[in-house]
Amino acid sequence: MATALKHLNADEFLLWAEGMDGRWELFDGVPVMMSPERVLHGATKGEVYAALRTAIRRAKLPCRAYPDGVAVRTSAKSTFQPDASVSCGRTPPIDALAIDDPVIVVEVLSPSTASIDHGPKLSGYFSLPSVEHYLILDPERRVVIHHKRGTGDAIETRELTDGVAKLDPPGFEVAVEAMFPPPSA
């Protein structure tokens, strides 16, 4: 179905995708349907969203955590649906399909999307001036790959298996363990 479409810009895509079944992203003007998710992937998305929301409330910051489904436009031709995100500052209208100013973006790694998460999404998210942190969660290894905006165009990367991810700005920490579902017994 996506191959029969003309190239779309981000605004056209958001209106088009709203009426479609399934979840879609826009890569260089071409709509791409997202794959079904495994249980571990979905559980990890829920845990990281809850952990971010709890940390924001504890820090009493004027930020909002969003679960998956809220799009982020990274260019006129690309729109991604991160697994969770955090925005601070102005609150978007309740009928908005995308946020324009995420500070934190999270993707949960899956075998079919690893190269996209580490490639086009990494560069796409950091093309937005508001993005300070891009977290890639590997649920199988229970590792957080924390990409942080550094000085100039530099992006600092750390792998975290325990402790906390320091997300400053906006000014809070999240325990690595809290971003993953409890280990299976």
Automatic annotation (TrEMBL):
InterPro entries: Nuclease_put_TT1808, Restrct_endonuc-II-like, Uma2. GO terms for molecular function: endonuclease activity. The keyword Cytoplasm does not apply. Keywords: Endonuclease, Hydrolase, Nuclease. Transmembrane segments: none annotated. Residues 11-173 form the Putative restriction endonuclease domain. SUPFAM superfamilies: Restriction endonuclease-like (SSF52980). It comes from the Bacteria. The keyword Hydrolase applies. It holds the Pfam family Uma2. This is Uma2 family endonuclease. It comes from Roseiarcus fermentans.
